[in-house]
Structure formats: C-alpha cells, structure tokens
Amino acid sequence: MTAVQSQTINEAAKGIDTLGIARTGTGKTVAFLLPVIQRILQASPELEHRQRNPAIDIRSIIISPTRELAEQISKEAKRLVGNTGIKIGLAVGGTGRSVALRDMHRNGCHILVGTPGRLNDLLSDTQSGIVVPKLNSFVLDEADRLLDDGFGPAIEEIYRYFPSKMEVDRQTLMFSATMEQAVMGMVGKFMKRDFRTVRTVSADEVQTHERVPQHVVVMNGLENQIPALFELIKRESGPGKDFKAIVFFNTSAEVSLVRAIYDKSSLRNKIGIQGLEMHARLSQYQRTQTSNNFRHSKSAIMFSSDVAARGMDFPNVSHVIQMGLAKDRDTYIHRVGRTGRAGKEGQGWVLLTPWDTYLYKRRLSQLPIKVDGTLETASLDMSQNLAISQGVADLLTDTIQAAKNVDFTLKSNAFTSNLSAGQSVDKGLLIEALNRRAQYGWGMDPPPSVSNSLANKLGFSRTRELRIGDDPRAPPRSTDERKGQSVWQASRMSHGKYQDRSTRRTSLPSRAF
Fold it and tell me: Which fold has domain 208-386?
C-alpha cells in the first residue's frame, strides 16, 4: 500500500471529508475508490453479493478532467467491485451519449465516473433518467487541473443536482497536486468544515523535474526541428535499449504531421519502433487504443499534445521530448513528470528555436536543465550546402523526402496551427520562420498559403511574408465547402491566384545562450 493510500484510506474510512495532496502515479485512484466502495456497502449490505436486476441507483460521482483518466478510474473501479453487486457507469465526451445511457439502464449504476461536460449534460436532462437522490460520496480527482481547464462553473452546476447534506450525509474526497488558492476555494464550497488534509508530498522530497537529467537544445531554426528530433531518437534508441518516449507538441496538427513523417521515414524501419499519435482531435476509441498500446509497449514513440501531460500513468517512459517551449512552467513540469516515475530513470529534452530562449529563461531558468550541443542537425543552416558527415546527410535526406511524401493537408494544417500558437512572436519573423521550415524542412517550395479570411481573423492580412489565397496543391473542396464564399473568393480560387508578399526579409534573433 502506498503512502497516499494508507493515509487517505484511514481518514476517509471514518467518513471524514479528505483533501489529498498527491502527485499522479502514487496510487491515489485506489485511495479514493476503496472508501467510496466501503461507504456504499455499509449503506446497502445487500450489494456485497451480485445482483440479478441492477438498477440505476447512483451513490457516488467521480469527476475527472480527461476522458482517458476517467476510463482508467472506471477500469480500476470495475476490478475492485468485481465480486460485488456494485455497478460502474462511465460518462465522457467523445463517446455515444445514447450508448452510455443504454448501458447504465441495462446494467445498473452505483458509481458514476465522468468528465464535467458529459456529467452536467446527463444530470440536466430530465429525460436521461440520471438522478442522484441517494448520493453519499463525491470525488474530484486532479482538482487543480479541473480548475486550470476551466471546469469550475460546470462542477458547480453539477453540484446543484445533488441532494442537500441535510437530506443525505455526503462525504467529499478531493485530490490535487497543489494547494493553490483556487483549489482551496473549491474546498470551501464542497467540503465540510472539519475536513482533513493528507499530504504525501513532503517539503524535502525531490520531485521528478528536480531529479531526472534534463537537456535543452537551441536549434538554428524551425526547419531543424524534425531532423534534430530524429537524430536524438536514432542515438537514444540504440541496440539493446528500451526506448519509450513521449514527444510533446503545442498543437494537435503538428502531432499528426510529425507522426506521419516518422512513419514514412527509413528511420522508422531501421529502428523498428512504432509511432503513435495522441491528441484531442482523435475519437475516444482511437485515444483509448493509443493509450493501451503505449502503456503495454516496451519500446514506442507517442507523439502527443498536452492531452497526455497530466493524469495519465504510462509505466517505464524513458524519454520526454518537448518540441518548443511549453505554455507555462507547470506544463513543462507535468510533461517531464511522465518519465522517471516510480523511482525509475528517465531523461527530459526540450528543443527550442532562438526566439524561445527569452521566455525559456523567464520560465525555466531555476530548473536543473543543461544546454546540450551534441545534436549536429540542430545547428545546421539548412538553406546552405555545407560539408557534413555522411550519416547526417543521410538523415537530412531521409527526413525531407519523408516530409515530401506526406499529405499536403497535414503540412498545411501544421503551418496554419502555428499562426495562432505563435502570437507572442513578431508576425514577420514568425512567418519567415514558418516559410523556412516549409521550404527547407518539408521540401515545400513555395510554402503553404492561408485563406484571406483566416489571415484577417488572426491579424496577418498585412504581413508581407505570408502567402494569402487558395493553394492549388490543396485537394479539391466539396460543393458544401464552397458554399458561402463570395464571388470574389470563388473567382480567386478558380484562377488559382495568390497574394505573394514575401518581399521583406528580416533576420531571426540570435541565440540567447
């Protein structure tokens, strides 16, 4: 039994509201499930045995910030109640609402695990049959992330459907990695005044981001990003090594693109390590399949957005590689926290562009991150013909050829996604960097163009470096997609004309290290 389990279960078994300060991967799921199950069995001893005709009789609601974490909780709960009459329901977005309701009405439900949006949807629908008059326990897992993701109002709305504590004595269990002010505000709203705090993160405990080796690589430009990543993968996945890596990107479109380039590269065949893709645009089924596949693999590379940065527990991750600067310090720390878990070894890498370095110093300068200059492809000027080793030349050729073979739409989407993700950078410098990446990193000449409406929306309509118009390399759009366009737009599309404003060149910032 882990520390968080022994301490939390002892307090919660007494019926006391409990706030657990614990990191992910410490066994907290079992720490709140066992008291919840015990409370149900104490109130209804008949559920100690299997029931023939179970009904919806919800006694506990468990809220999770993500579908994946909710699924993990549901799976663990089903394992724990396997020999009892207690039934588990799952309510998450991205899956069929009617299917979830049908399963609960058919199989019964005593513990309902879900994400805020879907739970609120079911409870607010008077036709769903989901009511909670006997609710005697309420669990908020990853409370800090629930608040970070803006779920506070939805949780308060869900709470409105609960019976008052005067009608039903209800125990509240809350888990968070931090005791930030917003979390304590939640405690004040939902927990009894005599709640207990269980802290399993000691003040002198060395956390993952302080323990595992971390390296920062400053690239010459965005065009060096994929070659540097592939060079690192090739080096770290040598013979006899288990290489299980999560590669984080700031946009889902970049995840899809780089995974596709990796799959088409000869590197993929040489090292024999599968590439997986994880982001919010995938269906729930696809995300579940990816999670299970990666979790049970000895060696694999999961290209991911921040969907996998918190809450999800993947064993034996050897490397976390961050492509670009995370949006804030906490996100960086949570990403790194996917490796070096349960006392295992791990490594953290972050690949930055020169203009990332100022924010890097502001956000991460106090962390034990060492500058690394060992990746040869990171510092190359890829616009020049340089004398380089045969191995590096082969890697560059392989990477660019693989990128050329990837669908145009994936490259266009990744290009566009960076327009909104890079709003803190000078617009002219950003577009020049993206154009260089497209030309020298993806083998696209000219770079992709964006629609006039999108350029206006994102404030790039006056940026001379950006190509604005319809790109003839894009696949034909359907009739429905053309509807609503102005005659002017349709005319531009039919003639394949562009606004090519790349007349001004500005130099990129120099390295700040």
Answer: Rossmann fold (3.40.50)
